[in-house]
Amino acid sequence: LYPLTKQSYKSMKKMSQLQPKIAELKEKYKGDQQKIQKETMKLYSTYGVNPAGGCLPMLLQMPILFALFTFFNVAIEIRNEPFIFWITNLAAPDVIYQLPFTIPLFGITAITGLAPLLGITMFFQQKMTVKDPNQKALVYIMPFMLTFLFMSFSSGLNLYYFMFNLLSIGQQYLINHQQGEELVPVKNPKKKAGFMQRMMEAAEKQQKAQKQTVKKRR
């Protein structure tokens, strides 16, 4: 998954570098949301940044996670097979404490060891990637929710995801601190419009057509 995560983190770094410029646009065109969106798309085009560039590689990883989820549940070879410390069965949750009650909504009856570690690595990942003030809540909500979700998953899957997150954090740190990756305008920024830009242009044309229709009726 290295090529996918590398491209994703590079895109996130560019988005992070653009945040001060986007903040200036929001201040300059305060109250005019359409103008802000239009100028933001123009900014993306100028610097060759794809807003969805950080998300698409992550979506491509999902089939692998679903495959591993199925594998660790049905693979006979790893049933009752231990790893290290408290992980005694890679095909089952690594329970370290049995709760005397059930956690509502999630149906959790036991605390596992790897799920909280997984949540901590997710939190650090979110802190490194989410720079938009409007998305700050995701830094805390997503790791919290996913920690409880992964409590019932097999320790083999959680172990894989935990190690994946650790390696990704190291990879992202190196990319974020890599020298010579300054944000500069690209050549021929309007050579090929991105999907988001085309959507914005189509919405703008439709809005203008609606205004003209309203004027004619009046």
- What's the tally of helices? 7
**What structural class results from the helix and strand content?**
mainly alpha
Give a quick account of the main beta sheet: strands, pairing sense, barrel closure.
2 strands, antiparallel
| Series of H and E elements | HHHEEHHHH
**Molecular shape:** elongated
Mean pLDDT: 76
How many beta strands in the DSSP annotation? 2
Task: Report how far the terminal alpha carbons are from each other.
Answer: 58 Å
Q: Output the radius of gyration.
A: 23 Å
Bin the strand percentage. Answer: 5-15%
Q: Helix proportion of residues, in percent? A: 55-70%
Major sheet strand order: 1-2
Low-confidence stretches: none
Please, could you describe this protein's structure?
The chain is 62% helix and 6% strand. Strands 1-2 form a two-stranded antiparallel sheet. The radius of gyration is 23 Å and the shape is elongated.
Topology:
Blueprint: H1 2-28, H2 33-47, H3 56-74, E1 95-103, E2 108-112, H4 114-129, H5 136-149, H6 155-176, H7 195-217
Antiparallel strand pairs: 1-2
Helix pairs in contact: 1-2, 1-3, 1-6, 2-7, 3-6, 4-5, 4-6
What would the keywords be for this entry?
about 220 residues, mainly alpha, two-stranded antiparallel sheet, 2 strands, about 60% helix, about 5% strand, elongated
Nutshell version of this structure?
This protein is mainly alpha-helical and 218 residues long. It has helices at 2-28, 33-47, 56-74, 114-129, 136-149, 155-176, 195-217, and strands spanning 95-103, 108-112. α3 (56-74) packs antiparallel against α6.
